[in-house]
Amino acid sequence: KQWYQRRVRGVQDAEEYNMVKIKLETDVQVLEQQLQAMRATYQLNSEKLDYNFQVLKKRDEENTITKSQQKRKITRLQDTLNNLKSKFAKQEAHYRDENQQLADVYKRITDQFKELQKKSKHFQATDTKKFIDVWVMNEEEATELARKVMEEDRIVHTQQLGLEWSVPETAKVLEGEGRPQLAGEPPKQVSSTSLRSAKDTVNDIIRAASDAGSGQLEFSRSTMGGDGKVHKFSPILIKSVLELLCAEADFLVEKKLVHLLAPLEHDERLLMKLDSIFKAIGVDTEDDINRLTEYFLVTQEENPDMASLIHPNEVLKAIRHFVSDSASPNKLASHKPALEFDGAAAERDSGNDAAYWQALASILPKSHELKWDALIEGLQKYHGVLAQRAKLIEETDKLQNQNSELRMLLQQYIGSRVNQDLQIPPTHTIPSEMLRDYAIDS
């Protein structure tokens, strides 16, 4: 019995031992699995950390490169900014100077415009004469064109349309019906009673020089005038000086004034240009003209009483010396126009001008214009038909040439000796009607 109990206890202990052993082995396996899992997690975390480290290292390198590029860009932009600032300063100074120059030019042009307004009445007569000349010239040209239109209209009616033609009512304008009355010739003599000064002196000099004839390159410095007075310079000499002055100092004359003076004669044009130049350089009296003449002369060493003109290239220098020597505070204050017009130019009613020119422009009646349009349209259609017909004829000629070439090839093909060696000659496969037509054509 004791042995049995010990045996039972030994079996129980063995079972308990086995259970504890199994439990411990199971715990060992679980711990080993956990260890493997922890190792895997550690390996994964280690790889992640390495990858992140490499990524951060790469980003750091890129950021370093980007930082250096941005520094270079900042330096370049700073240089550009400095250059732009320098250019801006230069341009600002340039435009400031240009603005000042434009202001001076504006002031000068304003003064010239005021002078031009004062002179506008001087040229009313010239404008009227020019208007009449242009009117007559355009009227003659328009009348000639209108007569040609009437003649062409007659030819269109009689030859192209086969209709009777009569002079239309609109052609009465060619006979002078509705023509405006032009103003009379403007007075060429101008009023110069305001003062007798440099302008009157120049008038007398030009008249005296024209009466004396052409001069030489050398002139006497003193001469006896027609009025019995001894003048300092001869008229021929002074006129040559004035012509040289106009030729080399024409920039002192307004361009518009030059165009207005173009229709005038040489002496009148010279007189008007000198008036403008005298105003610019401050020549008012005969003494000023004599003083100005001295600047344009070169005295001969062997004969002090004889003088010759300076070279044209020295004219501007002579004018500059004259202006600087004769400048005085009261010069501009005492300056007055040498010549003024009374402004009493003849006025005319221009209300019918547009109707007159419109009548010349529409001399062909509307009904005749419609006939012309219909004729043009019909001729254009006829031209289209002829062009189409010519094209068809050309195509027909091409087809005939092709047909001839094909017939020649067919003749060679049918008449070839090789056909006799064939079991079925080509003539057996060609319809009899075609052979008959081919024989007839041949």
Beta-strand content bin: under 5%
Q: Tell me about the biggest sheet?
A: 3 strands, antiparallel
Q: What's the total number of strands?
A: 5
Class per helix and strand makeup: mainly alpha
The strand order across the widest sheet is 1-5-4
Order of helices and strands: HHHEEEHHHHEEHHHHH
Average per-residue pLDDT, rounded, comes to 78
Which parts are unreliable, with pLDDT below 50 for 5 consecutive residues or more?
A: 185-196, 214-230, 328-346
Which term fits the overall shape?
A: flat
Helix run count: 12
Distance between the termini: 152 Å
Radius of gyration: 57 Å
* Helical fraction: 55-70%
Q: Describe the oligomeric state of these chains in a short phrase.
A: single chain
What are the salient characteristics of this protein?
3-stranded antiparallel β-sheet; flat; 68% helix; 442 residues; mainly alpha
List the helices and strands and how they pair.
Elements: H1 2-119, H2 124-160, H3 198-212, E1 218-220, E2 223-224, E3 230-231, H4 235-248, H5 255-261, H6 266-281, H7 286-295, E4 297-299, E5 306-309, H8 315-326, H9 353-361, H10 366-414, H11 426-429, H12 432-441
Antiparallel strand pairs: 1-5, 2-3, 4-5
Helix pairs in contact: 3-4, 3-6, 4-6
Describe the structure.
By secondary structure, this protein is mainly alpha-helical. It contains 12 helices and 5 strands. The strands form 2 sheets. It has a 3-stranded antiparallel sheet with strand order 1-5-4. A two-stranded antiparallel ribbon has the order 2-3. The radius of gyration is 57 Å and the shape is flat. Residues 185-196, 214-230 and 328-346 have low confidence and may be disordered.
